[in-house]
Specification:
Elements: E1 17-21, H1 26-37, E2 41-46, H2 49-62, E3 67-72, H3 78-91, E4 97-100, H4 118-138, E5 145-149, H5 172-196, E6 202-206, E7 211-212, H6 228-234, E8 236-237, H7 238-241, H8 243-250, E9 259-262, E10 272-275, H9 284-298
Parallel strand pairs: 1-2, 1-4, 2-3, 4-5, 5-6, 6-9, 7-8
Antiparallel strand pairs: 9-10
Length: about 300
């Protein structure tokens, strides 16, 4: 099922406050371009402010009247997440759309200062904490939503609760799949809890299929030359990969809990549509345990 919705040029919709994490490049930048062009207020939440300012200039070049602003956010550091949320709450009365896009993909083993394996810490725990801290601002929105970026890697992911930090063995691809499955489970569990508590905010997951972004590196090295032709054949450019994110963030017919991805073979590329994961993906006990562990490790309790 394909749901198409384009907010660009829709004058009937009021200006929204949109936060995009990891908005300095790739999918995040393409997503930010869309909302800046739609006339929304876009906050580029970035770890590297120099790159963020460059992205801001690019957006203003494309849309001279755009309302865009950079803000520092390092999702691998809970202190930075708290600082970002505190600063934002002093400037903004409401958040309409939070897009949890930033992430790292298959780096060598390392740990964050909070004791998390880097991928799980940046991709899941950081966004879990950020969303919880911003929920009061989201609830002030008329039709607010949280969009969390997962990956087709969720399909081979598993949550190893006995080795979340990777101390007892680490394989970069395994831990990437774990973090992306955590993103998907978080998005669904968040929506279930929002619904059961009669909150206005909804939560939706999205994945870009195979998208050619700067995540496609091996460790800290550039993608080998012989891999690039295969990426071009089976993947799609970042502006196309961002379409499921944009649909998840703006299609008014979505009700919450959906997963949006490309409609092509294997979900690798194509037009955005609702994807149906296998039923056993959303196993209730696993989602609840991940939520409880995430609250405990981040020291963030959601106030529904």
């Amino acid at each position: 099922m394909l749901i198409q919705h384009d907010r660009v040029g829709d004058q009937a919709m009021k200006k929204k406050v949109v936060i995009v994490t990891g908005a300095n490049s790739g999918l995040g930048l393409e997503t930010a371009k869309h909302f800046a062009g739609a006339g929304d207020r876009v906050i580029l939440a970035v770890r590297n402010m120099e790159k963020g300012m460059k992205a801001e200039k690019e957006l203003l070049h494309l849309h001279p009247k755009a309302d865009v602003q950079c803000a520092e956010l390092d999702l691998s550091r809970l202190d930075s997440v708290h600082e970002f949320a505190k600063a934002l709450s002093m400037k903004e009365d409401v958040v309409d759309i939070l897009i949890n896009n930033a992430g790292v993909m298959m780096p060598p083993f390392s740990m964050t200062e909070d004791g998390f394996e880097l991928q799980m810490g940046s991709n899941h725990f950081g966004h879990f904490a950020l969303t919880g801290l911003l929920l009061p601002l989201l609830e002030k929105g008329e039709a607010s939503r949280v969009v969390t970026l997962t990956s087709i890697a969720y399909r081979y992911g598993a949550i190893d609760f006995n080795n979340l930090d990777g101390i007892n063995g680490y394989k970069s691809s395994t831990f990437y799949g774990q973090s992306k499955l955590a993103n998907l489970l978080f998005a669904r569990e968040l929506n279930d809890r929002l619904t059961s508590n009669q909150n206005k905010t909804i939560s939706i997951a999205a994945h870009p299929g195979l998208s050619s972004t700067n995540l496609f590196t091996l460790g800290k090295k550039e993608t080998p030359w012989y891999v690039k032709p295969f990426l071009k054949l089976f993947s799609q450019p970042a502006d196309q990969g961002a379409l499921p994110i944009i649909m998840a963030a703006s299609d008014e017919r979505l009700v919450g809990g959906e997963l949006i991805g490309p409609d092509g073979a294997g979900g690798r590329k194509g037009k955005p549509t609702i994807e149906a994961p296998k039923a056993n993906v959303f196993e209730q006990a696993r989602m609840k345990k991940l939520w409880d562990v995430s609250e405990e490790l981040t020291n963030i309790t959601y106030r529904f």
